[in-house]
Amino acid sequence: MAKEIEKAGIPTVHICTVVPISKTVGANRIVPAIAIPHPLGNPAKSEDEEKQLRRSLLDKALRALETKIEEQTVF
Questions:
Q1: What pLDDT does residue 11 have?
Q2: What is the pLDDT of residues 4-50, one digit of tens each?
């Protein structure tokens, strides 16, 4: 879906747990996630650590959106 949205001129970021799959499907901006069972977090962490972890992923994704790219890029 990210690829189709990009065709319309809207930049997207694909947050994923398996980067090679994202590359294969043609995602342009790829941000690696944490782990397959918990892509955007880690339930073993405290609530504050979890919040920091999620915030860092969101910040990385927002920076990726701001970045001009010419080819698939993993951030």
A1: 92
A2: 888 898 999 999 999 999 999 889 999 999 999 999 989 999 999 99
SS3 content of the chain, % helix, strand, coil (to 5): 45, 10, 45
69/16 Cα distance (integer angstroms): 18
Judge whether 45 and 32 are in contact, CB under 8 Å: no
- Cα–Cα distance, 57 to 17 (Å, whole number): 12
DSSP characters over 21-53? HHHHHT-SEEEE-S-SS-TT--TTS-HHHHHHH
Is residue 14 classed as helix, strand or coil in its secondary structure?
strand
